[in-house]
Every structure is written in structure tokens, then in C-alpha cells.
Amino acid sequence: MPEQPFQPEGAIAGSGGPGGAMHLAASEAETLERRPSPLPGGPKSTAPEGQDPSEAAPAADRPRSLWSDAWHDLRRNPVFLVSALIILFLVVISLWPSAIASGSPLKCDLAKAQQGSGPGHPFGYDGQGCDVYTRTVYGARTSVAVGVCATLGVAVLGSVLGALAGFFGGLWDSVLSRVTDVFFAIPVILGGLVLLSVVTSNSIWPVIGFIVLLGWPQISRIARGAVITARQNDYVQAARALGASNSRILLRHIAPNAVAPVIVVATIALGTYIALEATLSYLGVGLKPPSVSWGIDISAASPYIRNAPHALLWPSGALAITVLAFIMLGDAVRDALDPKLR
Questions:
Q1: CB-based contact 290:168 (threshold 8 Å)
Q2: Which pTM value belongs to this model?
Q3: What letter does residue 234 receive in the DSSP assignment?
Q4: What backbone phi and psi angles, to 5 degrees, belong to 222?
Q5: Pick from 219, 313, 215: which is nearest to 272 by CA?
Q6: Could you tell me how far CA 165 lies from the centroid of its own chain?
Q7: Which percentage of the chain shows pLDDT scores above 70?
């Protein structure tokens, strides 16, 4: 009798005939297809048995958008955190100044003029006997309001005009470029002295209107360059080939990818506009008494700098810290939104 060839025990147990081994191999192949083994030396899958490993991938491994990636970097930037805390504090005291200053900024006592700090009056009194601490706190409201409103107006007007010029080009682009050249040729301080000297209103709106009038060309050129760069990308050409309208291409495809430079410039310019308002108020053509402004207080304290330097120090320090905070915030946002700086 011829000898039977040796068969593995698993093959004999898995089937009752010669085809059992083939059926076992097929079932093992299906199992391997459902659960691919990791490459040698690579990371092992942590997905449970029967679950697709791609579904168990952690959220940190998924690609992030530009904004989420920028926020991820900003949260770890100490410059951003410090400047954001300072700006948050300024916004809070601008909305609720009475929370930390119980007195009135317009209440003055000439008998206490130029006196130093005392109980309940840590910053002392100015030349008119007004509490410097209270006026410094209330001055933040005016400065922040002027800076925020002027920045919004400049950003909206400049972005719209610049985006239209960069997208359509041609005659519109040429005309806008020449108009911006004319506005760039106007000195800001000289323009403020000429235009605001005829205004008698004590509100902040004439100052805001002047800043918007002379500030939009800068944002316009930034927006124009960003739109010209974005409209040359392949996804814009694909959208145009699919029949998308100009408004849809501009709003859905170009604007989201061109807004980052505008945000950076506007954030830095906000601090500049606060300093510009204080400068115009110091020169007497910006805000006027009885309005409360750091520029007005600095101008009023300048003649008494030898006898009462504290009246000049505190509003000047508050102005410097505010402007520095917005500039630092703009630099941090620029570093986070610009991939070339990574």
C-alpha cells in the first residue's frame, strides 16, 4: 500500500477532504483584507477588531485649515496672549468704566489742582483739579471706540474697492490706482489740521470720518494685491470653467483666501489710529472738551510737566501701552497667518 502524504493537522481538521486547506486559505485572506497588518517597523493600528482604522484616526492627525492652524499657533504664542489680555482689559473698562472708577471724569476741584496721589486717588490730580485716574479710565472708552470704528470703516471701504479693482482690472483698476496715489500724497497731520479745524462737533464721528477718508487707500492696495494673487489659482479657473458667476467666484473662492492680509494690516492699523486720534486731540483739532480723551489730557498736562509730571505720565503711559498691545497683536496674527514665516 502506498504511503499517504503528511497533511497538517489544521488542514485535516478544517475540512473533510482535500479541498479543506484551500477553503481555510481563502478565509484567512478575507480576514487579512478586512484587517491589514501594519508594515514592519511602522505604527500598529489601535482600531478595535472589525473597525476601519481610518475611522479611528485621531482628530489631531486630520489636516487643519488655515484658520484652525493659525489659532493653534496663536494659543502657544506668549506675545499674542499678553497683548490679547491687555486688549480684553481695555475693552472691559471701555464698556464698564464705572466698575473700576467710581467718580466722574468731569468733576474737578481747583483746590486740589496738581496734587499728588492720595487715598482713593492713586494718580493724583491734574491742573484743573480733576482726578487723573478717573479720566485715564474713561479715556480708554474714547480711544477704543475711535480705533475700532475707524478700523471697521477703513477695512470695509478699502477691501471692497481694492477687491473690485483687483478682480476686474482694466479701467477700474487704473482709476483706483491713481486715486489712491492722490490720497497717499496728502500728509495725515496736515490734512487733519485743515479738515478738522472747521468742525465744531464734540463727538467722535468727525475724527472717525477723517481717519476713514485718509486710511482706506492702504487697505485697498493690500486687498487688490491679494485678490490679484488669488484669482490666478487653479481653483478659480476651474470655477470659472464650470460657469460660476463673477460674484460667486469673488465671494466664495477669492475673498476667503485674500482676507488674511487685510486682517493683519487692519489689526496693526488700529493701534495707529488710536495714536492718530490722540495726536489730533493734542493739537486741538480732534476731540474737544468736555470730551474725555488721552490726547486732551496730555495736551492739558504739558504746561505743568515740571510741577505735576504725574498728570502727564499716566495718560501717556496708557496710550503707549494700548498702541503697543495692538501692534503686538497684529504681529502675532501676521506670523500665524503667513505660511512663509513658519
A1: no
A2: 0.77
A3: H
A4: -65, -45
A5: 215
A6: 24
A7: 80
